[in-house]
Amino acid sequence: MHRHPLFLPAAALLAFASLAAADTDAAAALALRLLPVLAFAAGMSVVVNLAARVHLFEWLVAQLERATSSREAAFAGFLTLAAACTAFFSLDTTAIMLTPLAIQLAARFHLPQPAVVLAVVWIANLASMPLPVSNLTNLLALGGGAFDSQQHFRHAALQPASAAFAVAAAACYLARFAYRGAAGHVEHDSQQHHYPRPGAALLVLCATMLALLGPVPYWVTSTVAAAAMWIAVGTDGRRGGIAPLIPWPALALAAALSATATLCTTAGNVAGAVQHLQGAHPWFIAAAGAAAANAINNIPAYFALEPAADDPLSAMALLIGVNAGPVVTPWASLATLLWADQLKRSGVKVPWKHFTLWGLAVAPVAVGAATAALLVAA
Questions:
Q1: Does pLDDT of 22 surpass 80?
Q2: In Å, how far are 86, 115, 132, 174, 185 from 180, measured between CA atoms?
Q3: Helices (H), strands (E): how many in the chain?
Q4: Residue 75 and residue 49: Cα distance in Å, rounded?
Q5: Has residue 2 got a pLDDT over 80?
Q6: Which residues pair with 112 in a beta bridge?
Q7: Is 38 buried (19+), middle (13-18) or exposed (0-12) by CB count in 10 A?
Q8: What pLDDT shows up at residue 189?
């Protein structure tokens, strides 16, 4: 059954209106915290989708193909790139930027397409703990006062982040073995390997990556980058306007779920249940975070459970749950929604049934390993 295209935006507006009616201050605070990440996701979507129109990702994979003929080196290099992109540029950037690249990589090196695209979403989520900028939830935790400084956060996150990434890498290789009969395919074409260098678009993309490491707010960087890429791709790349380049349903769903979750936490019984988690063992907080993220999305899950995480150990446990756990349901993280949007735009299908079944195996191991590492390091 297909939803009307205005269904999710209308649901988001209704959820915010209901929250504003119940608690104006809570609605304003949520909007101020949520709007920057949605603006960032929208801007990066425009950047990546415009870059795809000038064959930037095909060109990049062609360069990799010229550099190595080794399937193993290409796959390992891609996993490393995904981890670095997630750590320094956020999981949402990885989902948006590397999904098209993964599809091209699978085709060029005859790798199992489902395994390569699943690797993107797993690493995007599971590798999103090492730095504050790796995930919005990390920034929320840092801004909420649970950690004294970025250095304090990095030190607390080092061991659990390493454990979660190890689980993600193991899952990627296991999926590659499981899907070994589903190698990516590309039609033979004498021109396929000779895309012209997308000079202006490549320059914009590189400048954007560098700017994301600087002090400029990330949503400002993505907005400026979208405008620069719009100019760089020329007339042919601008067909249809900007609106179709933005994943409106995914952004609206994240907003609606966040507003709904915040509204629920204003209810006395829900707020009381969250307060009961205060002082709970990190295992319970991590498990609660993972369960809530898969139920309502990790951003509203963090908002809902934040009152229970009032010290560095419990805050990191909550981050483990909401960062490494949301790989079971399609709506569990914005990165997963953006990943699915990129797959749809590329005409690639990975059944949600496969995603969920894999997630049911990966999430408990990742959350468990990261929490155990956290407790060992504490």
A1: no
A2: 26, 9, 36, 10, 13
A3: 18, 0
A4: 23
A5: no
A6: 183
A7: buried
A8: 42
- Is the dihedral angle over the CA atoms 48, 54, 60, 65 positive or is it negative? positive
pLDDT of residue 63 exceeding 90, the answer is no
Query: pLDDT, tens digit, for every residue of 343-366?
Result: 998 899 899 999 999 999 999 999
Name the nearest CA neighbour of 122 among 365, 347, 284.
365
pTM metric for this prediction: 0.82
265 in Cβ contact with 274 (< 8 Å): yes
* pLDDT tens readout for residues 80-120: 989 988 998 889 889 998 999 899 899 888 899 999 999 99
Residue 8 amino acid letter: L
| Residue among 268, 211, 238 at smallest CA distance from 93 | 211
pLDDT band at 183 (very low <50, low <70, confident <90, very high): low
183: β partners:
112
Residue with tokens 């608690």: 23
What are the residues whose beta carbons fall under 8 Å from the beta carbon of 339, sequence distance 6 or more? Answer: 95, 99, 117, 120, 121, 124
Are 324 and 129 in contact, with CB atoms under 8 Å apart? yes
The answer, yes or no, to whether residue 313 has pLDDT greater than 90, is yes
The alpha carbons of the chain give a radius of gyration, in whole angstroms, of 20
Residue with tokens 């649970």: 146
Which DSSP category does 112 fall into?
B
pLDDT at 188 over 50: no
The DSSP line for 189-250 is -TTTT-PPP-HHHHHHHHHHHHHTTSSS-HHHHHHHHHHHHHHHTHHHHTTT-SGGGS-HHH
Q: Does residue 190 have a pLDDT over 70? A: no
Going by pLDDT thresholds of 50, 70 and 90, the confidence category of residue 319 is very high
Say if residues 289 and 317 touch (Cβ distance below 8 Å).
yes
Alpha-carbon span 355 to 366, nearest angstrom: 15
- Can you tell me which residue has the tokens 């690639």? 348
Query: Residue 249: which of 345, 147, 166 has the closest Cα?
Result: 345
Q: Is 342 exposed, middle or buried (0-12, 13-18, 19+ CB in 10 A)?
A: buried
